[in-house]
Design brief:
The chain is 35% helix and 17% strand. It binds ligand MGD (2 copies) and molybdenum atom (MO).
Length: 773
């Protein structure tokens, strides 16, 4: 039986997490982050994945200088001081999830139709284990059946060659693809003739990239881990570090011990803003000794970060009239433009407005401003709580404004530091995954690779979904990831994928995107990062770039999950050769030895000179950041202050600003359990965290079922029924729940005008007691 058609109620509201085996539970969590709670959780997980022997062995190989593989989890940099065991609970879970002994072979697909699998939870799908051989969808039986690699490539090649225009295909990347595969992938798309290269960044840090580019002429942060180790003040905005970048806890605890100030800006008081027990500090672990990881919490309202930053600037500028040293006037004069306009905008923004829009009192903003003013060196770090908003670009630019006021750029211990998501999402951009490539990049690609790349911009994630719905994009290729669930407007995204002639998913595990597919569909299984990649010239390694622009090699150590798996570069080359029979690009030769790919990359990419040698240095190399050296590739040649007006983010009466986020026990669309340890939740994902007063106003008590209705920019509405309300410490007017379930509520038209990012942290919602059924 096929799942219900899109647009029908219930069509996309399957459970994503495992079936809960207990009653929903909520009790606020007050223990330190990491520590024994994390250790216990890791061992339980290793037992469940039956990886007790291999798990620890692999973990000892993770994130090591001189060999080992890069943790495929988050993009937090490895400790460069030669730390022997730089890992975290969630990294271990992530690696173990890939190394599971369970397998999804042809027998599995013979036993279960696609219609049947569509009824399974997303947890159950991934929990079947690793994919083992290429499969093709057979519409007559509604089953996936085996297909040889050669026939699979022929099928894709024929379909791509049969298009009226290469722009009828779109090539998605999820951010764990290594740099070499990334380079081949974009080369293939551009040789075919399209810049349709949507990626998970379109939903993640697009706003950060665009803002930093506009202000500083670089799309990335400028600081590294050494800077984190020497700064006087850290501002941590919109990130749940204890769950999503747990190794940051080490840096926070060290900063605290050093006497640095740590200000957390978040509507929720997250675990990382309190205390931690560092898991690899054996003495602390044994003594249960915890260290503080925060000195001030500012519970900003959803979307209120720009107003808060404006308030800090206003306070610093006010103070400068009495004490000119509050500003670094010399830096401002020499390296920036637009200061006078910005000063005027700050003066013109009233404190009432700043308090109302930020949701933080003037007194608290002044405390933060004092910390900023008193620090010789400051770092401001942020993640999705800042970027996934309508005014994400303006907000990140306001962060840069604050930094520029005191010359917090281009010197040790100071600067902007976005926390990136997927382990190589930053490398994907660096190596050419960009639907809006610069002409400079295309010129070099054209010269070095002797192709004629298209010049018009391509489609991003939302653009691709819309084009698939219209029938303008007919072939979707997913290089990793889980597009069906990660993208906004689940119903529309399902319909879009089903409207394709062909969907191709290159994956390691079974997921929803294999079941929501085009008329023809392929599952192409690939090696994971932990596995040996054996090619003609020997074992290959791939390079990755972390959040702080460090590029290093990652070498898999494990026997592949199946002898039929291909590496991602090999899959791309296979498709390229079938789709471009007259190509002069040496696809097969590249795959024999990835050094050859790197030699070409060295000629095309800025900062990759002498790539093969430098990437083999013990810690790899750092890509030069011109802005760190106070070289600004902006039109003015200077760091540009921006003077945008404050947006109105206060929810209309009766509505709430609802943000979607991850639980502790999930990796994006992969849900390990229904628990969210640091928020005190067990056995529950269909919940909404609300302010207690907002609950009372609606006549709601803890665990009462509610209906959540979102209103999109175009006035259309979407509903989720029967979620449970949980009273939580967050500002009035704000609410929070889990992704990807809540993507059902985010309309395709609800994306930022500034960044094109879906508004995943600000759904306009009404929440009411559930209608009696
Ligand atoms: N274990 C684990 N690690 C991960 C991931 C994972 O799923 N699991 N995902 C990876 C990926 S791809 C990414 S992009 C990162 C994501 O890392 P995070 O950005 O931490 O991801 P979210 O869970 O979405 O949490 C967003 C945080 O922003 C806060 N927030 C919400 N709205 C606002 C706001 O308006 N202002 C402010 N200041 N804060 C706000 C929320 O309370 C929450 O703490 O993590 C990466 N690492
Ligand atoms: N509502 C809401 N939606 C969001 C967000 C949010 O905060 N709120 N966050 C957004 C963000 S920041 C991101 S980054 C996206 C994430 O979007 P995606 O990157 O598309 O999703 P993932 O869940 O990370 O993808 C998991 C799948 O990747 C495949 N995979 C794992 N390892 C490998 C590998 O080594 N190679 C290959 N080829 N495949 C592999 C597995 O099959 C697995 O099922 O979601 C976005 N969606
Ligand atoms: Mo992300």
């Amino acid at each position: 039986m096929r799942p219900e058609e899109p647009g029908q109620p219930g069509a996309v509201e399957e459970r994503v997490g495992p079936r809960a085996d207990g009653e929903p539970f909520f009790h606020p969590y007050h223990h330190p982050a990491a520590g024994w709670g994390a250790a216990k959780s890791v061992s339980k997980f290793l037992v469940r994945e039956r990886a007790l022997v291999e798990g620890p062995r692999a973990i000892m190989k993770m994130n090591h200088e001189n060999g080992g593989f890069d943790c495929p989890g988050c993009a937090w940099p490895d400790d460069t001081k030669g730390l022997r065991l730089d890992l975290c609970e969630n990294g271990v879970k992530h690696v173990t999830w890939e190394m599971t002994r369970k397998r999804v072979g042809r027998e599995f697909f013979a036993a279960h139709s696609v219609g049947e699998l569509a009824e399974w939870s997303d947890f159950a799908l991934e929990d079947q284990g690793r994919l083992t051989e290429p499969m093709v969808y057979d519409p007559d039986s509604d089953h996936y059946v085996p297909i040889s690699w050669r026939h699979a490539f022929d099928l894709v090649g024929r379909a791509l060659r049969g298009l009226d225009s290469p722009n009828q295909a779109s090539f998605y990347t999820s951010g764990r693809l290594g740099n070499e595969a990334t380079f081949l992938y974009q080369l293939m798309a551009r040789e075919l003739g399209t810049n349709n290269l949507p990626d998970c960044s379109n939903m993640c840090h697009e706003a950060s990239g665009r803002a930093l580019d506009a202000s500083l002429g670089t799309g990335k942060g400028t600081v590294d881990l050494q800077d984190w180790g020497t700064t006087d003040a850290l501002f941590i905005m919109g990130v749940n570090a204890a769950s999503n970048a747990p190794r940051m806890l080490t840096a926070l605890a060290a900063a605290y011990k050093r006497g640095a100030q740590i200000v957390h800006v978040n509507p929720l008081i997250e675990a990382a803003s309190r205390r931690t027990i560092i898991p690899h500090d054996f003495v602390d672990m044994a003594a249960c000794h915890s260290t503080r990881t925060g000195t001030l919490n500012l519970q900003v309202r959803v979307g209120g970060d720009m107003a808060l930053m404006r308030g800090i600037s206003k306070a610093v500028l006010d103070q400068a009239t009495a004490d000119p040293k509050s500003l670094d006037q010399e830096f401002i004069d020499r390296y920036t433009s637009g200061f006078e306009d910005y000063r005027k905008v700050c003066e013109a923004t009233s404190w009432e407005e700043i308090e109302r829009q930020s949701g933080v009192s003037r007194a608290d903003i002044l405390r933060a401003a004092r910390i900023y003013r008193d620090a010789d060196r400051s770092i401001i770090s942020w993640c999705l709580g800042v970027s996934q908003h309508e005014h994400g670009v303006d907000t990140v630019r306001e962060i840069v404004n604050v930094l520029l006021l005191r010359g917090n750029l281009g010197r040790e211990g100071a600067g902007p530091s976005p926390v990136r998501g997927h382990s190589n999402v930053q490398g994907n951009r660096t190596c050419g995954i960009d639907h809006r490539p610069t002409s400079q990049f295309l010129d070099r690609l054209a010269t070095v690779c002797e192709i004629d790349p298209p010049r018009e911009h391509g489609l991003d994630t939302v653009g691709t979904i819309r084009a698939m719905l219209r029938g303008d994009v007919k072939i979707f290729v997913g290089m990793g990831g889980n597009f069906a669930l990660a993208a906004p407007d689940t119903r529309a995204t399902y319909e879009a994928l089903r409207n394709c002639d062909l969907t191709v998913q290159v994956s390691t595990k079974l997921n929803r995107s294999h079941l929501v597919h085009g008329r023809q569909a392929l599952i192409l299984p690939c090696l994971g990062r932990t596995e040996k990649d054996h090619q003609r010239c020997g074992i290959q390694s791939t390079s990755v770039e972390d959040s702080m622009s460090m590029v290093h090699l990652s070498v898999g150590m494990k026997k592949p999950a199946s002898p039929h798996l291909l590496s991602e570069p090999a899959v791309i080359a296979g498709i390229a050769r079938a789709a471009l029979p007259d190509s002069t690009t040496p696809w097969a030769w590249y795959v024999e030895d990835y050094d050859r790919i790197r030699d070409t990359m060295a000629q095309v990419l800025d900062g990759f000179e002498d790539f093969n040698r430098r990437v083999r240095l013990p810690l790899g190399f750092r890509i030069r950041q011109p802005a760190r050296e106070l070289v600004f590739r902006t039109a003015s040649g200077l760091a540009d202050f921006s003077s945008a007006p404050l947006p109105d983010v206060v929810p209309a009466p009766g509505t709430l600003a609802l943000g979607t986020m991850r639980s502790h026990d999930q990796w994006n669309t992969t849900i390990y359990s229904d628990n969210d340890r640091y928020r005190g939740i067990k056995n529950l994902r269909t919940l909404v965290f609300m302010n207690a007063a907002d609950m009372r106003e609606r006549g709601l008590a803890e665990f009462d079922p509610v209906d959540i209705e979102s209103t999109a920019k175009d006035g259309s509405t979407r509903v989720l029924n029967g979620y449970l309300a949980i009273p939580y410490d967050l500002p009035r007017g704000c609410a929070a729940g889990y992704m990807p379930e809540m993507n059902v509520l985010i309309a395709l038209c609800d994306y930022s005008e500034q960044s094109d990012q879906p508004l995943m942290k600000h759904i306009r919602a009404t929440i009411r007691p559930a209608a009696a059924s």
